[in-house]
């Protein structure tokens, strides 16, 4: 479908940006790459959810799960190569990037997640920062040699669609969610996760997507059943919540990866299932279990009616 964009001038454009590489550009591209990775989203969204605005944090986490699923589904449909797959001799990516190329998930998530943040906060300077960040991500993905120009344009397009859909549908979904019984909510969460796992190829990225979606649904469900905590409190309380929470969350994420990798012993299907479980448990820990612990430790007030859901 993109054969001309993946050869000829499309490949020439990647070569052109590669020719502008230097120490400063390489560092900036690495930083931008990290800003689209799981750890970065874990750090930033946890801070928002625990210490700034619970409702905004839940919006961003749900949008992350849905947008990540959309990008991964599109990748499995288009099966588009990356520049190094087309020209392994002349293309020298700054790092090894697995998976298909179109669309760029880094750009798609940048538009969907940080566009939502900019719109929700209604700050003009944040709108300008959002536009600059998206353009920087588009540049960084091509500069680093891991994407073609049409990959990042596709990420921009589908990220905009995902953002628009979420803004249009979130109030309707919130109303429907409140009307459903707990059993219906659980059935919908589990069935949609199972369907996603069947539809998406059980590779590393798809397993992470399904685990994130399952954990997001169950985490929000549990946070509505348990008395959690709100984001109010002194600066000291918020700081302790963030530091303690991130220490536990990140430690669990990486220690469980080491444990599950040892258990799976390179058995690909089993490894995919364990990866799904790891992402699900990490998300549940951040959304439901740690906020409950903060309340127990008197690091936050009881959330009361301020539940972690879309409303």
Describe this structure in words.
This protein is 75% helix and 0% strand. It has helices at 9-18, 23-34, 38-52, 54-78, 83-86, 105-121, 124-143, 149-179, 182-199, 204-225, 235-264, 268-296. It has two domains: 1-169, no CATH class; 180-311, no CATH class. The chain is an all-alpha fold and 311 residues long.
Number of helices: 12
End-to-end gap:
41 Å
Question: What is the average per-residue confidence, as pLDDT, rounded to a whole number?
Answer: 87
Strand count, sense and closure of the main sheet?
none
Provide a short characterization of the protein structure.
This protein is mostly helical. Helices cover 75% and strands 0% of the residues. The protein has helices at residues 9-18, 23-34, 38-52, 54-78, 83-86, 105-121, 124-143, 149-179, 182-199, 204-225, 235-264, 268-296.
List keywords for this structure.
0% strand; mainly alpha; single chain; 311 residues; 2 domains
């Amino acid at each position: 479908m993109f054969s001309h964009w993946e050869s000829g001038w499309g490949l020439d454009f990647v070569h052109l940006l590669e020719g502008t590489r230097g120490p400063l550009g390489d560092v900036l591209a690495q930083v931008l790459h990290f800003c689209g990775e799981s750890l970065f989203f874990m750090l930033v969204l946890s801070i928002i959810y625990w210490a700034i605005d619970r409702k905004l944090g839940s919006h961003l986490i749900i949008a992350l799960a849905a947008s990540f699923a959309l990008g991964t589904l599109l990748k499995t449909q288009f099966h588009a190569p990356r520049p190094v797959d087309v020209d392994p001799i002349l293309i020298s990516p700054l790092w090894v990037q697995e998976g298909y190329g179109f669309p760029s998930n880094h750009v798609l998530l940048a538009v969907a997640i940080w566009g939502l943040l900019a719109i929700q906060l209604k700050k003009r300077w944040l709108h300008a920062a959002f536009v600059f960040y998206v353009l920087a991500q588009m540049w960084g993905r091509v500069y680093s040699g891991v994407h073609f120009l049409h990959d990042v344009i596709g990420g921009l397009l589908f990220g905009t669609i995902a953002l628009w859909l979420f803004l249009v549908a979130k109030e309707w979904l919130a109303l429907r969610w409140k009307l459903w019984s707990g059993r219906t909510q659980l059935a919908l969460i589990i069935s949609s996760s199972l369907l996603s796992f069947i539809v998406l190829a059980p590779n590393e990225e798809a397993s992470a997507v399904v685990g994130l979606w399952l954990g997001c649904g169950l985490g929000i469900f549990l946070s509505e059943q348990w008395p959690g905590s709100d984001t109010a409190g002194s600066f000291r309380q918020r700081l302790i919540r963030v530091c303690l929470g991130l220490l536990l969350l990140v430690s669990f994420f990486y220690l469980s990866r080491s444990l599950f990798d040892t258990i799976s012993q390179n058995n690909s299907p089993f490894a995919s299932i364990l990866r799904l479980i790891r992402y699900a448990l990490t998300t549940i820990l951040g959304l439901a279990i740690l906020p409950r612990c903060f309340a127990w430790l008197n690091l936050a007030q009881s959330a009361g009616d301020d539940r972690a859901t879309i409303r």
